Amino acid sequence: MNTRQALYLEITGIIAAAIMAILCGFVVILFSSHQPMEAISSLLGGPLSGAFNIGTILNKAVPLIFTGLALSVVFQSGVFSMGAEGQLYVGAFVGSLVAVYVHGLSAWIMVPMVLISAMIGGALYGAIPGWLKTRWNANEIVTTLMMNFVAILTTSYLVNNVFKDPASGGYARMHYVGDGARLGKIFAGFPAHYGVIVALLTAVVIYLFMYKTRSGYELRLVGKNSRFADYGGISTKRVVIMSVMISGALAGLAGIVEILGVHGTYKDNFSSGLGFDGIIIALLARNHPIGVVAVSLFYAYLQVGATQMQVGSDMPRELAIVIQVMLVLFVSSQAIFTYLKQKFALRQKAVK
């Protein structure tokens, strides 16, 4: 079985899992709702019912793409990092400081400067657990989870005290970002912001890096067999540090794009678990950058559909969580992929 055939089977399996998860959601609706047809119609058709909803899907998908890419990179190096949430906060905080306190620059200089600052903040924060792992073999799951709380609570203290906008009253936030540093709307009357383009370009860059460069090959090789990589002369410690820093940079990018494109200011606890959602996105996408984009759009579609369903029927929006959980269960269980591969192998033998 060549690489293209294996990828085809992976995609087929994920699509089949998504269909089964949605069917499970339909079963829940049929047993729980007094308006099952209205609920199903709103869930499936609502997200595509107008430009506003479509733009909302794209905006919600943007941070998921970044965090999904962040985790897909580090997972492929064999490091199971859980730290995207903390890196997201640190990157957003550092980028927001630059956006608020640096003045007098054109948007063409200001926006890249803010984005790069956020990436540096996230990368440096992500490097800490990577260094701990390579220096003392500290378990990355424990260290990254602990550092999430450190990042969230530290930035919360700073935005509540040191950098709080006096005009915000009892609301914990920084000063609003100037128009020169904001990510504006792509089209007038369409809510999607330029972060959508940044996210798609980033996905392409990560794909090219992972599959078309020597560094990407070394990263994937270390993840598959670190001993073999060592024998081949690859510095596994360097690769691990590189992977966690790239992951942190992408997570920081997720945070600052959400600030510049949606909120307009750094707010306390602005993330709704986007870093943890990225773990699920990466796993569902089988750590493939293009798959991350597709799964992120599907996730955002479900979120918007659930909101429309709550408005148009008697079903709560939490049904989307049920579908997401079922999707994770179906994809994480290898049975469907094993069945497809066995069926494909039998078909190949029959042809021969």
Automatic annotation (TrEMBL):
Pfam families: BPD_transp_2. One of its GO terms (cellular component) is plasma membrane. Its main location: membrane. GO terms for molecular function: transmembrane transporter activity. It is a multi-pass membrane protein. The chain crosses the membrane at residues 7-31, 51-74, 86-103, 109-128, 140-159, 192-211, 239-262, 319-340. It comes from the Bacteria. It is found in: Cell membrane. Keywords: Cell membrane, Membrane, Transmembrane, Transmembrane helix. The keyword rRNA processing does not apply. PANTHER family: ABC TRANSPORTER, PERMEASE PROTEIN, GUANOSINE ABC TRANSPORTER PERMEASE PROTEIN NUPP. This is ABC transporter permease. It comes from Paenibacillus sp. SYP-B3998.
